[in-house]
Amino acid sequence: MMKHSEWLTATTHNDSLRAVGRNADIPFRTITGQTEREAISAENIIKIAVAYGHNPVTALVDTGSVSYTHLTLPTTPYV
Q1: Confidence (pTM)
Q2: Which among 58, 63, 56, 67 has a CA at the least distance from the CA of 9?
Q3: Among 3, 9, 49, 53, CA closest to 26
Q4: Nearest to 3 by CA among 58, 30, 40, 54
Q5: What gap in Å lies between CA 63 and CA 3, rounded to an integer?
Q6: Cys staple from 47: which of 19, 22, 24, 38, with CB 3.0 to 4.6 Å?
Q7: Which of 34, 32, 37, 43 is closest to 66 using CA atoms?
Q8: CA-based angle 25:26:31, to the nearest 5?
Q9: Is 42 helix (H, G, I), strand (E, B) or coil?
Q10: How far apart, in whole angstroms, are the C-alpha atoms of residue 10 and residue 14?
Q11: Distance, CA of 46 to chain centre
């Protein structure tokens, strides 16, 4: 699992937080605060991944929001 700030830098090719917020439609204060706390929300991880052309599911795994184990569990059909 990567630190959220490391993931953000790698995913956005070191774009400024202002640019990340603009590209992913996330308020600057929100992305700044979450990055400083190393706690980017799953919703914002998805927004950033999509904005920068990355797989959002992989992004969630990379940041520890979802475990790889969850992806490999057999699915149960909904009734």
Answers
A1: 0.88
A2: 63
A3: 49
A4: 40
A5: 7
A6: 24
A7: 43
A8: 150
A9: helix
A10: 7
A11: 5
Q: Does residue 26 sit in helix, strand or coil?
A: coil
Q: Please list, in sequence order, all residues whose beta carbon lies within 8 angstroms of the beta carbon of residue 59, skipping any fewer than 6 positions away.
A: 7, 11, 45, 46, 48, 49
- Report d(CA 22, CA 58) in Å as an integer: 22
User: Which residues, in sequence order, are CB contacts of 58 under 8 Å at separation 6+?
Assistant: 49
Tokens of 21: 């917020």
pLDDT digits (tens, 9 = 90+) for 32-74: 999 999 999 999 999 999 999 999 999 999 999 988 777 776 7
- Structure token digits, residue 4: 């959220």
pLDDT at position 15: 98
